[in-house]
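To close the chapter, one final illustration. This time we ask the reader to focus less on the individual chains and more on the assembly as a whole: which components sit near each other, and how the overall shape emerges from the parts.
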Amino acid sequence: SFEDFRNDKERRDFVACATAGGVAAAFGAPIGGVFFALEEGASFMTLKLTWRCFFCAIGTALTGYLLLSVLPPEFVNQLSFLDPFPNSGPLYEQKDLSIFAVMGVLGGLLGAAFNQMNRRLTVFRLAHVTTPRKKMLELMSLTTLMAVLSFGLPFAGRCRSRPQLDTTTGIYSYASTLRPFLCAGDDSYNELASLYLQSWDDSLRILFHLPMHLQSGEPVFSTAALLCFFCPYFFMAFMTFGASVPFGLFIPSLLSGAALGRVVGQALHPLGGFAEPGVYALVMASAVLGGMCRMTISLALILLEATGNMNLLLPLSISLFLSRWVGNAFNESIYQMHIHLRKIPFLEPQCPQEARVSDLRVCEIMATEPLCLHPVDQVGRIYELLAATAHHCFPLREDDCTVFGTISRDILCSLLFLKAFSGEKSESVLRDTSAAVVTPVLPYEKVEQFFPHFPSIATICLTESEKISWIDLRPYCDTAPYLVTESTAVPRAYRLFRNLGLRHLLVISRNGHLSGILTRHDLEEEHLMASLAHSPMLLSRKVWKITKDALMRQEDGELDSYHSHESPSVSPSMP
Amino acid sequence: SFEDFRNDKERRDFVACATAGGVAAAFGAPIGGVFFALEEGASFMTLKLTWRCFFCAIGTALTGYLLLSVLPPEFVNQLSFLDPFPNSGPLYEQKDLSIFAVMGVLGGLLGAAFNQMNRRLTVFRLAHVTTPRKKMLELMSLTTLMAVLSFGLPFAGRCRSRPQLDTTTGIYSYASTLRPFLCAGDDSYNELASLYLQSWDDSLRILFHLPMHLQSGEPVFSTAALLCFFCPYFFMAFMTFGASVPFGLFIPSLLSGAALGRVVGQALHPLGGFAEPGVYALVMASAVLGGMCRMTISLALILLEATGNMNLLLPLSISLFLSRWVGNAFNESIYQMHIHLRKIPFLEPQCPQEARVSDLRVCEIMATEPLCLHPVDQVGRIYELLAATAHHCFPLREDDCTVFGTISRDILCSLLFLKAFSGEKSESVLRDTSAAVVTPVLPYEKVEQFFPHFPSIATICLTESEKISWIDLRPYCDTAPYLVTESTAVPRAYRLFRNLGLRHLLVISRNGHLSGILTRHDLEEEHLMASLAHSPMLLSRKVWKITKDALMRQEDGELDSYHSHESPSVSPSMP
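The assembled structure is written out below.
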C-alpha cells in the first residue's frame, strides 16, 4: 500500500530518485544521474536508495528510448545532449595526458576564482537585493545585459567561407549549423553568430565535434572568436548564478570551458600529433565545471554517458580530480558556499577538522536545559510551548529527570487540533506514569491524516476549559530515541547525525538524567569554533589528544576518547 | 603520517579500495569496480570511501594505460577483456527489448536453479569434505573432470570450412582465432575446439563479436555446438564454486550465458530484422551471471565499460533487473548464501521483515548479564575473563551499575602483555573512581605498537604476585560507547549496527544501569526468529503494530515504537 510512503524519509528518497531521473532525462546519463543524486543530493547514502535511483533512471532512459522510436523526429531526435565520440580508434595519445592534467589545474584555478567572485556577489545580493521590486529590477538588468551581449557580439564577428563538404559525413551535419548571419550568402558563415545564435546543445556539438580545419588554411574558429565567446559567457555565469531565478551553472560553464579548451587545442595543433581540439574542448569543459562544483565521479559519468565513449574516462578523471584538488585548496564548492551563505543546516560528510583534533565533548556544545514536556501534561502548557518556539521535537521528561521519550511538533499540533484530550481523568491518575495500561485516544490513521502538512500552531484555538485539561502523550511518543552520554566526543555525535540522518539527539548523564539536546545547528562549523574558543581547558587536553586519538578508532573507526577523564592539570609527560 | 591508517576501519576501507582496483584491472572497468566494491564488498558506504575507491580505480586505469603504451604488445595488448561494440549505429531495435526481458527472466530462473543446486553441494561439502586429504582428493577429481571435458569434447566437434576474409576488417581478427584442431589444413576449423581450446577472453570475444554467418549458408557455430559448450560449462561452474580453491564464478557464467544467448540469437535471426547474435550473447551472459549473484548496477557498469558502448545500458539493465527479481523470488544470491552457510555475521542492508512487522524490542534479543570489568580491576580476574571467553569487547561497570565505558580485548591483552599494572597503589585509592587525576601508565604508542596483530591471551604468562596486583583501565577505555535503551525497537538497533559499522552495542535501562549487550550475532535472522518464537506477548502487540508503525518513521525514517508502553491486554479497538 502507499501508506508506507507517507513519511519524511520516503519524501527525501523520492527527491533523490527524481534527481537521478531528471539528470538521466536532461543529459541522457542514467548512471551519472544516480551518482549525481548520491554525491550532491543525498545527505547519506544506502544501497536501497542507490537501487531506487537506478531503477528510476533506467525507467527514464527506457521511456525516452520508446518515445524516440514512436514519435516523429521533429519532436524528439535524440536523448543525449552530446553526440558520441567514435570508439573505433584512439582519441588521444600518451603525451596528451599531461596537457589534460594542466587543464585540470587551470580549471581548478578558474573555478576557485569564479566561486570567490560569486561569493562576494551573493553576500551583496543577500544584503541588498531583498524586496521583490529590487529582485525584479536585478533580473531585468541581467536579462538585458545577456541579450545585448548575445545579440550584439555577432555583429562584430568575422565572415569566413564555408567549404563544400560531402553531405553524407558527420562533419557536414555539424558544419551545416554554422550560421551565415549578415554574411554574403550560404557560402560563408559568421564565427560569433555560429556560437551565440544557436541552441546551447548545438553550440556544444560544434565545439566538441568539428575538426580543427574544415579546409586547409585557417581553423574553423579563430582564437579571438573563441575568447570572445569564453569571456562573456564566464562573466554572465558568474553574474547570474544565485539570482532570484535559476539560470543554471552546468551549461554556461561547459560552454565557456569548451571554448577555452578549443583555444588550447588549436594552439597545440601546429606542434603536431596531438588530439583533436574537440577532445581538449570536452576535457576543459569538464575541468571548468568541476572547478566550480567540485564533483568528480558524477560529472565524469554524465559526460562519459553523453559522449558514449568509455575511452574518455581517463582524461575526464584526471582533469576532474585535479580541478577538485586545486579548487579545494582555495575555497569550497559553489553549492556548499551557497548552502552556508543561506544558513541551511547541512552537515558535510566529515566533521570539521578542529573538532577532530581538539578533544571537544558533546556537553560543551549542546543546548542545556532543553524545553521539556511531562509524559502527561496540561494542554495549555503544551500550547504555550508550541507557540513560543519553533522546535521540531520535545523531550518528555519524567519527574525523576529520566527520559521517557520524544514527541514531535507535528504530532503535538495534530493532537491539539483534534482535541485529543483525556481530560475526564483526574490529574493524579494521569500523572502516575507507572500505570501500565495506556490507551491512545486517537488511532494512528487519525493523527497521521494531515501528512505532510500538519496543522500549524497558529490555526489552533483553545477555550480556557480546554487549556486546563490534561493530555496523555505516552501513546504517541517515541519511547526509545537515539541518545548519547555527556562525555561523547563531538566527532562521534557528528557521525550519528550524518549516518543516521538525525535532526536531534538527546544527551544524558551517566545515571540517565536528561542533560541536554543536540541539533544540526550545534554541529555546524561556526558553532563548533565558538565553543572551542570558549573552552580554555581544551588546550591542555589537546596535547594528549593529538598523539593518542587513534587508539579508540580501532573500535569502530571513529576518533574517540582515549583518555577522557584526566583533569586538565595532568602533565603529558610519563610518570 | 601513516599512523592514521593503523586501525580496523582503515583496513576495511583499504580492502574495498583494492577490490575496486582489482576489478578495474581485471575487467578494464574502473567505475564498475567502484560500484562492485560498494555493492558487494562494503558493509556500509560513505562518500569518502567512494572517492577513495574511485581514486584507486583510476590509478589502476592510468597505470594500465601507461604500461600499454610503453611495453611491447607481446606482454600487454589491451586492458579490457572485451572489445568495443561499435557506437556508430544502433545495435538493437525496439522489439529486441522484449527479447532481452525474456532473457532476463530466463537468466533469473537459471541462476536460482544454480544457487539451489550449489547450496546442496556446499552443505554436503561443509559436512564431508573436511580434512586436507579429502579436499585434495576433491580438487584432483574436479580438475580431472574439467580437463577431460575441455579436451575430450573438441574431438567430437564438426569441421567447417573457413571462408576467405578481408584481412583489414575486425571480423578477420576474430575469425583467425577459430582453431583448426585435427581438421584438414587452415581452410577449416573445428567448432568445439574453437570454443574450448582458447583463452577464456578469446572465447568470449568470438561469441560476442563474430556475426551470424561468415559466409552465406550455415552459421559460424551450430546450435548443437553452442549447447555442447553451454551445458558442460554451466555444470562445471556449479561443481567448482565453493571448492577449497577459488575457481571463479564470473568467467564460467559469462561464457555459458554467452553461448546460450547466441543460440537464441541464431534462432531469431531467420525471422529477420533482429540484432546480431553477439548482442544477445552479451545480454544473456549478463542475465545468467546476474541470476546467480543478483548484482545490477555494478555488473551493468562492468560490462558497459568492457564493451565501451553506452547504448548497451538499456538492454543490460533490463535483463539484470529482471534476473535479479526472478532469482530473488526463489532464493538469495550465491554470495549471501555462502556467507550464511559459513555463519559469518554479515548484516544485510535491511533488517529482516519479521522483526520489522512484529514489535520486537532490544531487551528481548540482547545478551543479559554481560561479562563486565570494573574500571579498576585485578589482573588475575582480567586474565581469567580473557582466557575463558572470545569476546571482542568488555563493558566497564561502576559499583552503582552505571556504565563507565568499554575496553577492547586487544588493548587488555596489550596491557597484560606489557605488564602495565599500577600495582603499587592501594586498592582503596584505586577503587575510588571519582578521583579526577588518572595518569596512564603506558602512552598510546606503546599500547598501539602491536597493531594489527595484538598478543593473544595464550602468549601471556603472569606470576601469582602479578595476578593479585591492580590495573587502572580508565585511561585506556572508550568512555562514551554507543548505547540504546531497553525499549528500543530492533530495527533501530539494526540500523545503528549497519550504518555505523558497529560490532557491539550496550543496552541500558532508563536510569542508566547496564542491562545487556548486543552483538551482530543477536541481529541475525535465525536469532531474531528464535526470539520471536519465544515471545508470546508479541502476538497481541503485533495487532497494534501493523497498522500503526509508520507514525514514528516520520521522525527519522525508521520504524519505531508508536505505542511501546501498552500492556498486551490492551484491546486494539477504540475506547
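The longest helix of chain A spans residues 96-128. Confidence is low (pLDDT under 50) at residues 542-575 of chain A. With these observations in hand, you are ready for the problems at the end of the chapter.
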